[in-house]
Amino acid sequence: MKFFAVNGSPNRDGNSAALTRILLDAAKAKGAQVDYVNIYDYRITDVWENYFGDALYKKFEKAENDDMPLLKDKMAAADIILLASPIYWYQLSGKLKTFVDRWTDTINPDFSSDLRGKGLALVSTHTGVNAINASNILQLAMDSTAEFLGMQWLGGIDCSSKMPFTSGRNNGHEIIAADFGEKLAQGQNLLGAPVFG
Ligand SMILES: Cc1cc2nc3c(=O)[nH]c(=O)nc-3n(C[C@H](O)[C@H](O)[C@H](O)COP(=O)(O)O)c2cc1C
User: Fold this and answer.
1) Which atom of ligand 1 is nearest to the CA of 134?
2) Domain count for the chain
3) Ligand 1 atom closest to Cα of 17?
4) Is residue 33 part of a domain?
5) Distance between CA atoms of 24 and 181, rounded to whole angstroms?
6) Residue 191 belongs to a domain
7) What is the CATH classification number for the domain harbouring 87?
8) d(Cα 189, Cα 143) in Å, to the nearest integer?
9) Residue-wise pLDDT tens digits, 73-113
């Protein structure tokens, strides 16, 4: 399996990077090929007025000189797109959200997407200081996004960050991350069900 892994945290060595590294190391041990980037290293133009219509007809002049063509090539080369995000107010980080907004670039006039058939997986991290699990909300949003684009939702994992008032990542989170990495590398979803024909 070929992974395109995108870390959406400005903290290159933070909580999201740490959990993702565990997942990807396990995936690589099972033969996965991994292209890993930090989204903060790329220029991505915000969507503009009438963007959706322009995107359907591949009119990207307003985004000239940004890095979306390169990022789209990386997505096209992958079987699985793995997003890693710190939870910012129950959602993706803003920069990663802008990247996902720009996935509209891949939609065609018949509403098919060039991302059709690819797997989508999520690693998210948070403080855990919420009355509800913020990562669960994001997982629902990404599951629906995958469905709209004809992608295969593979599942999401999360952990909390170590703070004076939180328990932080522990061995259990690391076992789950490694297990998910192994499953993804073998074309399975979080449940261990085969996804790719
Ligand atoms: C702007 C901002 C918003 C945040 N919103 C939430 C939140 O809604 N829920 C939560 O549990 N943690 C929230 N956090 C905490 C981060 O999600 C958490 O510290 C995360 O693990 C940081 O990941 P990183 O080390 O990869 O950057 C927020 C942090 C920032 C900076």
Assistant:
1) 9
2) 1
3) 26
4) yes
5) 6
6) no
7) 3.40.50.360
8) 12
9) 999 999 999 999 999 999 999 999 999 999 999 999 999 99
